[in-house]
What we know:
Blueprint: E1 2-5, E2 8-9, E3 19-23, E4 28-32, E5 41-44, H1 51-72, H2 75-78, E6 86-89, E7 95-100, E8 106-111, E9 124-125, E10 130-135, E11 150-156, E12 162-165, E13 173-174, E14 183-185, E15 208-212, H3 225-238, E16 243-247, E17 250-251, E18 264-268, H4 275-287, E19 291-296, E20 301-302, E21 327-328, E22 333-334, H5 343-353, E23 360-363, H6 367-370, H7 385-390
Amino acid sequence: MALLLQPIITSPRAFTGQSELGFRAIGERVHLTQLAERGFLYLGESDMDTSWLQELKYEQLQKQLSKLEESEGGYDQFTQSYKTFGVQRQPDNSLHFREWAPAAEALFLTGDFNAWEKFTHPYTKQEFGKWELILPPKHDNSPAVDHNSKLKVVVHTEEDERLYRISPWAKYVTRDEKSVIYDWVHWDPPNPYTQIHPRPKKPKGLRIYEAHVGIASPEGKVATYTNFTTNVLPHIRDSGYNCIQMMAIMEHAYYASFGYQITSFFAASSRYGTPEELKQMIDVAHSMGIVVLLDVVHSHASQNTEDGLNRFDGSDSCFFHSPPRGEHKLWDSRLFNYSSGVEDLIYLSQGLRDHPARLLYRIIAGSLVLFLKGRRKRQCNMQLHTCQTVL
Length: 391
């Protein structure tokens, strides 16, 4: 491990290569001897005793594990909460709805299934800011909400606002051509795509082809998963690549963000096609011996409110730090609060487990997870080491 640190001279004498320096991130003074370019110091493990850091990381880890045990029943259950949040169809075809909205006064479900009546289907408040609703099946024993029908969560706030929100756990969201807002579409196809081919064995070395489905076409339009499957995958295979790194798969309302301002973290982008078409694309890649990597953006989220996570329960702090710490001015995005509780970690970590074909992942903008202020100020966020361990 090596760190680049800007020296803080605590001695009045000029820096001569060895001086008493302060290390702001840990609050201790150490002797450093390696001066790099532009006045930065190269700090190796031999320059300091890091046993205190290991103890701090272990202490933070134990605190988080205790929280997980109390609220979620343990670490393994914690990473499988995607099976209980959002919409879950039960064996008897009843639908269980579950959301996390700690600041909300009341939650209701509305949509095509009830002719958009706003208050006929209230959620019941549970512990730890969770809300639940159970819809029994219809008289013919089919689910109360049809596949491909639209839904909204109606949130009543402490300020007596009425907000219409997309579930953070939505698996499919779409946008009408005449609208700029995405809609939550219930995705539960009667004949879902079934994986045929296993993931290829780990290759000795990777030749990675970075790709973006939407621009993988010579035509002046947004390309599709089907186009990528038919026309691009054979080219990648024939060119000798054994891995593709897919960009901009997680749903993002602003196409020009190149997938970096996520609005729905559990939904594959509908502008390229359906979730089943994405599954087929991945399956065909596996049949060609191609490993699939997926870019994930867990460092920040879109500022959108109506079709994003921002102010889901009416507060500035649901999922995120309150401003100004919770805003990234350069990227116009919100920053997650990884350390105040387990809910954010639940939300983000499950996305890695609940994904078609058991993909591999590349974490985008890791500096925002490792440091309090991202790239611009490298002040280490000690509380986030636990997050790295959990994820």
